Amino acid sequence: MQSNTATLDHSALKRIRSLALFNDKQLDNLAARLELKTAQPKQRIIGLGDTGDYGLYLLSGEAISQDREGTRCKVVSESDGQLQPIAQIRPSLYDIETLSPVVYLEIPNELLTQMSLLEETASAGMEVDIIEQSEEANRLTISLCQDISSGSISLPTMPEVVHKIKQEFAGDDFDVAKITGLIQSDPSITAKLLKAANSPLYRGSEPIETLQQAILRMGMDVIRKQIMIYAASELFQSKSAGMRNRMQSLWKNSRKVSAFSRILAVRSGHFDPEMAQMAGLICDLGIVAILDYAQTHGDLYDDDEALDQTIRAMHSPINGMFLYQWKLGDDIVTVGEESRKWFRNHRDAADLCDLVLVARYYSLIGTRAQKGLPALAKMPAFLKLQLEFSAEDSASFVQESRTEVAAIESMLGSV
């Protein structure tokens, strides 16, 4: 594999869906920072287990993918006139080998974020730091990749009582009395539901004192989703003093994403608020799984930076595996896999993942992480939501939502 000295213009970049909101000047700037790459036949351009945070696009030539079972499939690089990323899941589930001489392009996701900010900040006199992050894998990442490939990774399981309740809810003719009995068998779940029923989100004229009253007020569908929220919150309990601060910080961040997800669902009018709240809370459970893995493999990471590197590389596939294992549905699995991809741009109207993606963005406004955010107006997810306020009104929206965010966070409690 080698770089190509040929000049890259923005005509190829215009065929990439995730760059649809970039103007010609921005695409020219981006093209100037990228290099075309070439490979000869029978060369591997992506390896099984690759964790690089970039999109790869085949501009010419042919390639073939092969998974760990040896199944081979010809790679399709273009659909409906648009370039499609190949082997985009990380860690990569395939080896990609060329069948002919090829020309391809690698676009780091971090670079897209940086480029989206350049014009936005130039007129305001702000500076943008271009941070080069090492792609060097650490021992913890390698071990985690190997355990994923071999199928030997152990993910946190759903609490037994929650699993039983979820099974009872599976049918259309579920037994309300039996579900109520299962809930009452766990005082912690009962207490959480009573707290939710008396929160500002559901509060009526009289306080709720019994589970039966809570069920009548909220309804069984809301009860079902609140129980899943309870199950997720239990996983943030750290067994290790060394991980406690990380777990608590992750819980606080997840609560805020959950709160903004619910608020945006109400504001948009197109999403179920309880489902949005649950999706926002559980979208980072894969990080919980990575922290659990690190606790039991303490000899494999040297410092916090090594752990952070593993989280950056592995959180999306672990999220997807985790939520799939819990059988929470394709929409939720997609949230876990893609709700950190700022330039996600699927073909359809706004979905739950778009909502959580924008909620995550708002949860970071006012924090140190805000400096590294892309321009909101360049995010397809924000435009697809068609909210009644513009990207420029975001600071006001966050300020206006403070009381509601605090109420939702209070209902969710601490860990």
Describe the structure.
There is one protein chain. The chain has helices at residues 10-13, 24-32, 109-122, 139-150, 160-169, 176-184, 187-197, 211-218, 220-234, 241-268, 273-282, 285-296, 304-325, 330-338, 352-364, 380-385, 394-400, 402-412, and strands at 2-4, 36-39, 44-46, 54-60, 63-66, 72-74, 78-79, 82-83, 95-98, 102-108. The chain has 415 residues and is α+β, with helices and mostly antiparallel strands. The protein has two domains: 2-135, Jelly Rolls; 235-412, Hypothetical protein af1432, CATH 1.10.3210.10. The protein has a four-stranded antiparallel β-sheet. The protein is globular, with a radius of gyration of 23 Å.
Quote the beta fraction. 5-15%
**In CATH terms, what is the architecture of the largest domain?**
Orthogonal Bundle
The rounded distance between the terminal residues' Cα atoms is 49 Å
Helical segment count: 18
Number of domains: 2
Following the backbone from N to C, one meets helices and strands in this order, namely: EHHEEEEEEEEEHHHHHHHHHHHHHHHH
* The CATH top-level class label of the largest domain: Mainly Alpha
Mean model confidence by pLDDT: 84
Main beta sheet, described? 4 strands, antiparallel
Helix content: 40-55%
Low-pLDDT segments, ≥5 res = 119-136
Overall shape: it is: globular
Task: Count the beta strands.
Answer: 10
Give the strand order of the largest sheet, numbering strands 1, 2, ... along the chain. Answer: 1-2-10-4
CATH superfamily of the largest domain: Hypothetical protein af1432
- CATH topology value of the largest domain: Hypothetical protein af1432
